[in-house]
Design brief:
The protein is built from 17 helices and 4 strands. By secondary structure, it is mainly alpha-helical.
Amino acid sequence: MINKIVNSKRLQILFKNHLYIITGVIVFLNILVFQSWLVRFGNQFTIYNLIASSLRAVLVLFATWTVVIDKKLNFQKLFPYAIFGNVALINFATTGSNVLLVLFLFLFAIRNLEFNKIVSVFFVAQMMAATFIVFFNRIGLLPSVIDNRGAQIRDSFGFSGSNIFSLLVSFIIIEGLYLSSNKKNNLKYIFSLVLSAIVYLITDTRTGFIISLSAIILFFIAEKFSKNIFSFALALGSLSMMLFGLFLPTIYSSNIKLFAALDSVLSGRLSFANQFLNLYETRALGTRIFTVPNDQLTGSTLILDNFYIRNLLDSGWIFILLFFAVTIYAIIFLYKNKFINELIILFLCLLIGNFENTLTSISVCILFVIIYATVDSKKLSEGIK
């Protein structure tokens, strides 16, 4: 009786249509719970920990139910996820960090969804969450985190950090330009530029503005000019972003003027990453890392923003090797099959990895969604070209 219910065609169609809604709700709630001001003081509130644990439990149930209803699940389809799942489980057992495990469960749960529709879900969920958080912050129900940097004072607008709001808007702009890439209309570029400029002015964060401006320029070039040379440059640039993020902090030296100048432009991210490499041992399966005191007088800390170094230490060099391997495969696949708009997203995400370490968060994990979509090319076959 149960098998008949589960295998009924009507139920499968109904569930697949609702998968997108469930995915959107999970992304929305993850932003509210893990990217807003609440995460800063989560340990002080029992109800927050209960909500966070409940959200992870829902994700486990969501992933489990997709297995029950997926009649086409086989070893070949399961194999890429099994590799990532095992690495995530071992990393969790070794370090106690559940970041990779949560990411795995999410990617596994949405494995049958089309990429362009997933982008739509992220776009709507992120826009709703950003509006919700900023609104409640402005009416005084959700506090801000104030970042004092001498004469520079930055407001987080209800998010957990001053960069988070700006970065989330950047992802919204990237996804919006991707979804409208088949519509030749200059107004989308003007609107995106105005929005990114306003967010930059009110948050005073350069990272989000640089990413948004890069997205506007790249999608504009892809729409207006020849794509052959441009797509090759994107593929080469994507590889360069990974190598830049991983190896420059490794060989960084403040005695070299070029490195010192570059570190200044990147707000100390190169030197911070280099200090973490000196403090923590690089292990195969990762080690739990924490913020490091920087100034005992002011109480400031060093935060490892670099995605590549963060995961090299926190997730281990096995994960980084796997990440590089599948990402290089994704770059080649997208380039050869002329998925230029998807290649732009990949490039921008890899660029973001040099500035922020949040790419493994469900809230903005579009990088891993597109990588896994290249493994199953059917997800991209109906994408926006």
